[in-house]
From TrEMBL:
Keyword Methyltransferase appears in the UniProt entry: no
Protein name, entry field: histidine kinase
Catalytic activity, EC: 2.7.13.3
GO terms assigned for molecular function: kinase activity
Natural source organism: Pediococcus inopinatus
Histidine kinase domain sequence ranges: 205-422
Ranges annotated as spanning the membrane: 12-36, 165-184
Length: 422
């Protein structure tokens, strides 16, 4: 079922990306084509307008066609007056029918495979017999209208070739976008699938962790109900165990809530300058008697003589997690070492234990939620496998790094590097 859901999500993401890219390229291609087409027609129309104005205001009929346009003069009855200048275009021009509705407009006319673009206007001047002559043409020979024609077939063929090239490019880019969208959708789904898997594992592990203490508490309470005449002293063991499991549940739910809020970015750091030496002494002081009571030794070396900019509350939580972890796994008679210093503008904190150590295979896994390398020792060491996950989040929230190395004397060294202000 999960695979089907994930597959559907990937398909939806792929289609969304594909059609988004396709629409963008299509709109872009359309804009480029329309811009190119408009510029082509603007250039043609500019030539036609200029030639039309010259013909309409000329005092004598313009001569043979130039290499761009043909000028045709009509009298009031629609008869062509300059057919002698039209040469081989006379037959084509004679087939062109224009009317007053087309006056002062630019329009296309199709003649076989040839496309002609025309401008039709009134002649605004009286024309003479020849240049420099004051003698006007007869009324029947006097032009009333002028039609300027330009063969735009080559330009339109260029526009069509550009359109075909653009369509071919869009098809090719469409195929490329199809492939890229598929790759991107798979790539983007990886963190989603990873988060989905982590959520499932988290829920499964949380359910397992919660079920165990609840079962113990339920069994103890049911046992108490079977012995209503017993005193508290008679059932003190069951009561102590139930309270212990309740404390464990409280710690578990608190850690789960912290991680959930961290993942949803609800928690923000509140950094402030901290006198680190005094800060560490306040943290370590309560642990001194505890470590000595377990016949273990605590060695400290705090070499930070200036304030550091950190979230004191979260940093306190980080050190407590690492210190508790070291105490749990350090055997009786062994030493726990806490070092701190400033190296390369980083606050370096090292907590070393001389316990059983962590295998190279599992060094990265210890920061996963509910992960514990020694399953059999969970009851003896306590904890729920969330402490190091919270520790890693605190370090990442400070833009720092945490790593685990082997202690030469046995055990592990947790090294934390946090960037500090200059």
């Amino acid at each position: 079922m999960d695979k089907i859901v994930n597959r559907k999500q990937q398909i939806r993401l792929f289609l969304l990306e594909f059609f988004s890219f396709l629409i963008i390229f299509t709109v872009l291609g359309t804009i480029i084509f329309l811009f190119y087409q408009r510029n082509t027609y603007n250039s043609i129309d500019s030539t036609l307008t200029q030639r039309t104005q010259m013909a309409a205001n000329s005092t004598n009929m313009m001569g043979p066609p130039d290499f761009q346009t043909i000028t045709v003069y009509y009298n009031s009855k629609g008869k062509i007056l300059n057919s002698q200048y039209l040469n081989n275009m006379a037959s084509t021009v004679s087939k062109i029918k224009v009317n007053k509705n087309q006056l002062n407009r630019i329009f296309n006319i199709k003649s076989g495979d040839t496309t002609l673009r025309c401008a039709y206007v009134k002649v605004r001047s009286k024309m003479t017999m020849k240049r420099g002559d004051d003698k006007l043409l007869k009324a029947s020979k006097q032009p009333k209208y002028v039609l300027v024609i330009k063969n735009v077939t080559p330009e339109l063929q260029g526009v069509n070739r550009f359109k075909d090239l653009l369509l071919a490019s869009l098809i090719i880019f469409g195929l490329i976008v199809f492939i890229i969208s598929y790759i991107i959708s798979r790539y983007n789904m990886k963190p989603v699938l990873k988060a989905w898997k982590q959520q499932e594992e988290f829920v499964d592990s949380a359910a397992h962790e919660i079920r165990t203490p609840l079962t113990i508490i339920q069994n103890k309470l049911e046992g108490l109900m079977t012995k209503p005449n017993d005193t508290i002293k008679d059932q003190i063991g069951a009561i102590i165990m139930s309270l212990s499991e309740i404390r464990r549940l409280n710690g578990l739910t608190s850690d789960m809530l912290t991680l959930a809020r961290a993942n949803s970015n609800v928690i923000t750091l509140e950094k402030a300058p901290v006198n680190f030496s005094e800060f560490m002494n306040e943290i370590l002081e309560p642990y001194t008697d505890l470590i000595e009571s377990e016949d273990k030794k605590l060695v400290t070396s705090i070499n930070v003589d200036k304030p550091v900019l950190v979230d004191a509350k979260r940093l306190h939580q980080l050190i407590v997690i690492l210190l508790d972890n070291a105490i749990k796994y350090t055997p009786t008679g062994a030493t726990i070492t806490v070092n701190s210093s400033i190296e390369n503008r980083n606050l370096k904190i090292q907590i070393c234990d001389t316990g059983i150590g962590i295998s190279d295979k599992n060094k990265k896994s210890v920061f996963k939620r509910f992960y514990r390398e020694e399953k059999s020792g969970n009851k003896q060491t306590g904890g729920n496998g969330l402490g190091l996950s919270i520790a890693e989040w605190i370090v990442r929230a400070h833009n720092g790094h945490i790593k685990i190395t082997d202690n030469p004397g046995g055990g592990s060294i947790f090294t934390v590097l946090l960037p500090v202000a200059k």
